[in-house]
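Exercise: predict the fold of this chain.
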Amino acid sequence: MDSPRSVHPDDLRELGWSPADDLRFADTPDGRRPGRVVIMHGRALELAWFPGDGPAVHDTFELGRDLNLRPVAGDWVAVQDGRVVEVGPRRTALQRPDPNGKDTQVLAANIDTIMIVQPIDRPLNLEAIERLQVMAWDSGAAPVLVLTKSDGCPDIGAALDQAGQAAPGVPVLVTSALDRQGLEELRSHLGPGTTTTMLGASGVGKTSLLNALEGRNEQVQQVGAGGAGRHTTTTRRLFRTSAGGVLLDVPGIRSLDLLTTDEGVGETFADITEAARHCRFRDCGHAGDRGCAVEEAVRDGSLPERRLESWRRIQREQAYQDRRNDPAAMAEQRKVWKQMCKEAKRR
């Protein structure tokens, strides 16, 4: 019996394949076939793949021994003899610090666009927008800010102004699942050969938006009086959209702990990065340094003070993460803190 032909790129585009994805490792004469991880189930996973010359199907596979990586939703893998035998290279990876405080947790892989979802029927959470931007830029994907629940917003123009300050240079879409505002523009980001995910806390409108886009009827939890929602998505799952691309449904992020890089912070705070070019000293910390152009911009009103405070908080977290991964640096910092406490007691 003849072996099935190699999978055609046009077929793989249904699963979000783009020319940036190198699948030569998974489509070989020895019987390997490529597939994409839909959802993880412990030592098994659900895979979308092409077992023959027909359409893509979903099957469950066991993980092979000695895998080069632990698969996550969005990974491209090679299957052979009923097992996943290799995980392909990740061109982008959405990640954050692992709850164990030591490792990195990869949430999803091979994403093109990260939609940062925030509602505007209540005051915008500008800090969440900034922090999720850092995650997006650091992943290697392109962020898009999606403002939901516009039907309940008394001043959309003011919300757009605020969003523009928190996300300079990032595309902003205004949407409503109720009156379908902005859905077609949103759909334009979900075309064939693309992989998108939505990030935001529970209750921001992700599930309602997906229901409106796809004609789904997923459960939607009501938002409490304090503006907090309950989690309707409980695990990371990839599915194909009617626009032709794929979307990774990610649970609402309870914690906004960041695994940051200078590049991600620099892109998110592009206004501070630009102002810093005019500081007197190249290593200016923007905290009382002489000739600091960033603090001068705050004083003259061209840079919101809130932006600088948000930047400082993220810088402190970045420094903490660095110290936590460097025991010597953490020990040195503890000495500094101990000395500060002693001095405070003497006063």
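Check your answer against the key: The chain is about 30% helix and 20% strand.
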